[in-house]
Each structure stands twice: as C-alpha cells, then as structure tokens.
Amino acid sequence: MLESLRRIVQEVNNAGDLEQALSIIVQRVKQAVGADVCSVYLNDYDNHRHVLHATEGLRQDAVGRVRLELGRGLIGLVSERAEPINLDDAANHPRYECIIDTGEERYHGFLGAPIIQNRKVLGVLVLRQRWRRHFGEDEVTFVMTLASQLAGAITFARTSGELARLQDDGIPQRFLPGLAASPGIGLGQAVVVYPPADLDAVPDRRPEDPEIEAEDFRRAVREVAGDLDRFAGRAQVHLRVEDMALFDAWRLMLESDTLIDGTLSRIRAGNWAPGALRETIAEHARVFDAMDDAYLRERATDVRDLGRCILMYLQNRAGAPIQYPPRTILVGDEISAMQIADVPREKLAGVVSTTGSGSSHVGILARGMGVPAAMGVSDLPVGRVEGREMVVDGYRGRVYVSPGPAVRSEYQRLAEDDAALTSELQALSHLPAETTDGYLIPLYLNTGLVSESRPLGIEESAGVGLYRTELPFIVRDSFPSEAAQMTNYRHVLELFAPRPVTIRTLDIGGDKPLPYFPMHEANPFLGWRGIRITLDHPEIFLTQVRAVLRAAIGLDNLQLLLPMVSTVGEVDDALLLIRRAHDELLEEGYQVRMPPVGVMIEVPAAVYQAEALARRVDFLSVGTNDLTQYLLAVDRNNPHVAKLYNEYHPAVLRALLQILTGARLHGKEVSVCGEMAGDPLATFLLLGMGVHSLSMGAGSLLRVKKVIRSISRARAREVLKVALQCEDAGSVRRLLLDALETVGLGGLVRPGR
Q1: What is the DSSP string of 344-411?
Q2: What is the per-residue pLDDT across 558-609, written as a single tens digit (0 to 9) for each?
Q3: What average pLDDT score do residues 225-242 get?
Q4: From 50, 53, 284, 361, the catalytic residue
Q5: What EC number(s) does this enzyme carry (predicted)?
Q6: What is the C-alpha separation between 70 and 384, in angstroms, rounded?
Q7: Burial of residue 70, with CB atoms counted within 10 A of its CB: 0-12 exposed, 13-18 middle, 19 or more buried
C-alpha cells in the first residue's frame, strides 16, 4: 500500500488542474482499497452546502448536482468532527441520509475522511462498500494521507478561481498565505524559475585524472565569479551602494576555504568534480540547516544556489535566456539572488517563493530593490502558475493567482497609494528620529553579513546596535586568527565611526555548530551555546576580544555585547576575561581602551536578574526574538506552533517592563533589537516604556522613524497603559492598529493609506 500511496501522490502533484486531481484520487483510491465507490464532497461555506465534485462508482450525472445542506448526513458529521468516521453499516447510523440521485442506497460500508488545510475542513473523501465492511487501520491511514494531499490542490483552486468555474454560482476569491518579506504591492505575470542543475542527482565516480577534474572545478568557480560580477554590475544601476553588499557576501562564500579546499580534497581522495562538489555543498549546507537563527539558517539556500551554479558549468550547461514580460512576478520553490538580478529592474514587479523567509538573501535583496516579496507560500503549486496573472501583497505575505476584476482593481489602487507612501518615507532620510514632544530615540542597525563592504542602511542609522560575528567563523575550515578577525572588525568600526558599533561576541554552539568544532545535542535550544561555550573555551573568547579591542584603537566607537547570559556568574567571568585581554594588550604596547560592555537579555532568567546584571555592565540589549520563544515555549520556525509566537503577548510586555525597571535602578540604558524593534506597531509600546534605542534591519528604519516623528511620548505612554490591561496578544495588536490608524499611518503595516 505504501507504493500505491507514493504513485498516487505523485500523480496528484502532477495533475494539471483540480478536476484532474479529483479524478485521479477517486479512481486510484477505489482501486487500491478495493472499495466499490470513492467520492469527494467539497464544502461550499458561502452557500452553506456540501457539493459532490467527483466520484468513481456512483452516477456521473450526480457530480455537481448533488448538494447537501452544510452539516447534514454523514458527510456533515465528518466535517463537524474533523476526523474520520468508519462504519460497517452506515444506513443504521442516526445521521445517515439516503441520496437517491447518486444510487448509493445499495451500499453499507462507509469510511469518510476530512480534507483539512490550516484547521479548516475543505471537504470529505468518502469510500463505500456494498456489503458490511469495517475498513482496516492501515486503510484509514492511507485515505487520510491522500485527503491531506488534496487540501493543497483545493486551496489553490479556490484562490485561482478554478473552483468557481467548476461551480454554477462561484465563490469569492481567496489568497494563498505566506510570510511578508518585502513590503509593497506587486501586480504582474508569473515567470517560474527553477534550479539550473540538480546536485542531488550527481553520482559518485572515480576520476580518470584528478588534476583535470580539479582544474575543471577551478574553471567553473571562475565562471560563476564572473557571472556574479556581471550581475552586480547590472544591479548597481538600481541599487544603493550599501545594498550591493549581498554580492560581496556571495563572492566570499564562493571563494571560501570550505568550498574550494573541501571540494579539491574530495577530488584528490578519489571522486570526480561533480561528486566532490555535491558532498562539499551538502556538508556546508547542513551546518546552516541545523541552526535555530532564521537569518543564519537561510544561508543554506545560498550555499546550495552556489553549488548548482558551479555544477551547471561543470556540466557545460548554459541557461537559455528567459523572456521577461513588462511586469514580471518571479516565482519559484527556491529563488536565488542571481535569478532576481537576472531580471531587468524595470520589469521586476514582485517575488514569490514557496520556501524561505524575510531573512533570506532573496528577501534582503528584494527589500533593497524596493520589490514586493512573499516567502514561504507553501500552498502554491509552482508548476501550474507560469504565465498567469498574479498579485503579491508584500505587507501581509499574501498571493492571489488569476485575481478577478474586483481584486485586481482594489490592489491597483493600493499600489498607487503605496507608491505615494514610499515617496513620503524617502523624505525622512537624514532627519532625526524625534517625537513631536522633542524626545530623541536613536535607531541603530542590525548587521553581520559576511564581509559586507557597506551594510544596508549605513547612511540612515545612528550606528550598529547588533553586529553578529558568527558568519566569518562559519565559512572557514578553522578558527580565524586574531589578525584575520581584527581586519574584519576594523572594517566595520571604521565604516561607522564615530557612530557606535555594538559587536556581539561569538554566539555559536548547540544549534549553530562550526564545521570544524562539531557538537551533537539532544536539545540544542537549551544547550551549549553563546557565552556558555566561550567561557568553557576561554582561548576562543580571549582571541576574539583581543581582536576587537585592537580593531578599535584610535576609533573608540566600540561596544561589546555578551549573548545568551543566564547567570550573573557568567557575566563576572566574562568581564574578568575582557579585562585580562585588555591588560595583556597594554603590556604588549597596544593603546587599547576598555569599551562599554553590555548583556543580551534573551532568556527568562536574565529578565528576573535584570537589576543584578545592570549593576555589573554598562547597558542591556533585549533580543526579543529569543526572549519571546523562551517565554512562550514556542519555536516560531515550527509550522505546528508558529502561530502561538507573538511578541505582543502580555507576558512579553511585562518582561520588557521588568528589564527596564531593573536597569533604571542603576541608571543603565536599554536597547531593543530583533523584529519587535523594527515593527511600526510595537513603536508605541517601546517608546512608552522608555526604551533608550532601537536596533533593526535596514528596511524598517524609515517606517519606524515615521511613527516616532508622528506621535508624542505622552501618547505612547497612554497606549502602553491600555495595552497592559489587555489579557491576550490579539487585543494588544488591535489596540496598536487603532492607534496607528488614528495618526494616519495604517499604511505602514498594511496596504493602502
């Protein structure tokens, strides 16, 4: 039965439309289970009925004509319970209703399985048997699995309008949900892109001449580097200088020791170039895949993209040029930055990916280019949308396929409003982030891309509030030397001087292992990471601190930040090591200065010891992403529980207040970094609480500044006071939306003005 399941799933996925998918299901399931009848009823909630849409075994003329009132009969019971119902004699059940038009009165055995998507029952898959039959447990599981396969096809059919065409009176059009990655509204025609080569299909093979294989690999790397340079040259016409940092990051990954030396070593060990490349890319990508940090995990896609590009040249395959329509919506399962750069900017209207998030290079590049983007649109059947009209709502991560006139007209209006808002925001460039009653709150930048020449947002930010130091460690085959680290830190410190740069010490371990420093833990979320690992390995910590202190000589704009702190003892030990590194450098003749040192508050234990921590350090920085996850016990990257992740939860708000209270007792400042700091809605709360500065991604700077310059601190305190009386996150969000609408800024978080 497992092989039957695999074949049916493959056929359904390859179906050209919903009608074909339903036909495949009813035919194949009837045959595989040995039932006399297989049918599919879909729920039409707008017209309050269950409609027979496909059958194998009942009268074909009943399809589309047989309609049960919603909730009636055994079909209605399966929908209500949202679980399978298995009866050996359905006619004796009190909810049974005989439908003469179908010819089903001759059947006794009944198995109904709900078709569910995002907690909503879309329909029922039904099996019938002439004689009494209680279907076996493996048969029930088989049917439930196939019902889940139908859910995606039905959702897409609703969105595309296909289901409306199959019904007499139609239904309202719906959207496909995803993750908001780049704000804006995009209307255009879908162009589907796909990986240029299949790394996973490459076999191992012994090379006839390893030296020739090695040279072929080096040549392919040079070709890809040339492509990157050409794409960068084309993109720089439309991107700011700082946005071009993404191409620098790609070049560094391409030329990294891990990629080059790793592949050459495997070639020398007896594998041909494509096979050696496959293993190297897989090993490198696994490191990123295992990480909890969404930004770092997205780098696995970048590594695989590079591997495919190199493989394309190894296989001597040149991609055929794509003809892009005037308003292109680029669509794919995994879209690379190079594929985006290949589209002429004046033709690129939007980006849609079934995977990824706003932290992927694609999302970052889309924001830098001002292109609306939705990521993680998992219900989108990419193979069936080529050439279709599409709307991308980058504010809410929504995608409409083949929108009707009403939807198209409304989004056209919203796009015009959005263009006007973007123009208004640009007028805020270089103006202070100051409230209407004169309170100034600096807006800093979160950064840390590999070898950024000029990070995104450099000109607009007041400095760097969080500089991640992990990536230069991850792309190497060994720990970087003190000199190599110093060069990297010096670059960013010089770039922002005299503005402050807060450098977070190495935050690896647990879910972020290094390729050359492996660790395996049952629960990496609560494992050996951050300050815990660097204190256990003081030689790593001291080398990094020495490099940072040396990099700041003559600039004096350095601040150090300690991650994943959960006890005051960790802070005491870290401060001793920092002073030791400082004193050693002075003895060696370096004119270093002791920088301000801060602590990241990202675990509940640190919240309750905020006062004790503030007594020991110079400032506190709240990592709202991890703090929310730990407070709510929710992995926001887990689709089963991600909806429970909410930074407006009353517990999160009260934790922030407790941190500020503890810091205030010792006159220490508190910064907030993470998604909450870059959310225009949360600006009311953070400003009202008295947070001293905010640190965020470059794309959020002007939007948050707009809110700050439109309200008074007194008004923010009023909103906060009401928010603290709310008992759930939904109530807090509605309050903040109303507050934003009141000052005419609802368009910052939704389409329209």
Answers
A1: -GGGEEEEEESS--TTSHHHHHHHHHT--EEE--TT--GGG-TT-EEEEETTTTEEEES--HHHHHHH
A2: 999 999 999 999 999 999 999 999 999 999 999 999 999 999 999 999 999 9
A3: 69
A4: 361
A5: 2.7.3.9
A6: 31
A7: middle
The edge-to-edge listing of strands for the beta sheet with 179-182 is 176-177, 398-401, 389-393, 185-192, 328-332, 348-353, 373-375, 179-182
3-state secondary structure of 446: strand
Q: How far is CA 613 from CA 15, 398, 499, 504, 566, in A?
A: 60, 43, 25, 17, 10
Cα three-residue angle 295-300-305, rounded to 5 degrees = 120
How many CB atoms are closer than 10 A to CB 204? 13
164-190 residues labelled b (16+ CB within 10 A) or e (exposed): bebbeeeeebbbbbbbbbbbbbbbbbb
Which amino acid, residue 707?
V
Report angle CA 116, 121, 127 to the nearest 5 degrees: 80
**DSSP for residue 529:** B
Q: Which residues, in sequence order, are bridge partners of residue 509?
A: 512, 529
CB 479 within 8 A of CB 454: no
Task: Give the whole-angstrom CA distance, residue 362 versus residue 353.
Answer: 9
Among 50, 309, 582, 673, the one annotated catalytic: 673
Place of tokens 């059009």: 173
Contact 339, 154 (CB under 8 A): no
Q: Report whether 394 contacts 374 (CB < 8 A).
A: yes
- With contact defined as beta carbons under 8 Å apart, do 35 and 129 qualify? yes
Q: What is the DSSP string of 121-183?
A: EEEEEEEEESS-----HHHHHHHHHHHHHHHHHHHHHHHHTHHHHHSSS------EE-EEEE-
What is 172-212 written as a DSSP string?
A: ----EE-EEEE-SEEEEEEEE---SS-GGGPPP---S-HHH
Task: List the one residue out of 665, 666, 709 whose CA is nearest residue 687.
Answer: 709
Please tell me the distance from the alpha carbon of residue 637 to that of residue 643, in angstroms, as a whole number: 10
**What pLDDT, on a 0 to 100 scale, did the predictor assign at position 404?**
79
pLDDT tens-digit map of 599-642: 999 999 999 999 999 999 999 999 998 899 899 988 765 656 66
Whether 361 sits among the annotated catalytic residues: the reply is: yes
- Give me the chain's average pLDDT, please: 84
Answer for the pair 527, 505: CB distance below 8 angstroms, yes or no: no
pLDDT of residue 416: 86
CA angle 630, 632, 633 (to 5 degrees): 60
User: Does 41 or 366 have the greater pLDDT score?
Assistant: 41
> Among 473, 239, 448, which residue's Cα sits nearest to residue 337?
239
Is 673 an active-site residue?
Answer: yes
Taken in order 574, 482, 457, 737, the sign of the CA dihedral is negative
Upstream peptide bond of 172 is cis (omega within 30 degrees of 0): no
pTM: 0.61
DSSP sequence for 55-112: EESS-GGGTTT-EEETT-HHHHHHHHHTS-EEES-GGGSTT----GGGTGGG--EEEE
Chain segment 316-367, per-residue pLDDT in tens: 754 556 789 999 999 988 787 778 878 888 899 999 998 876 656 677 678 7
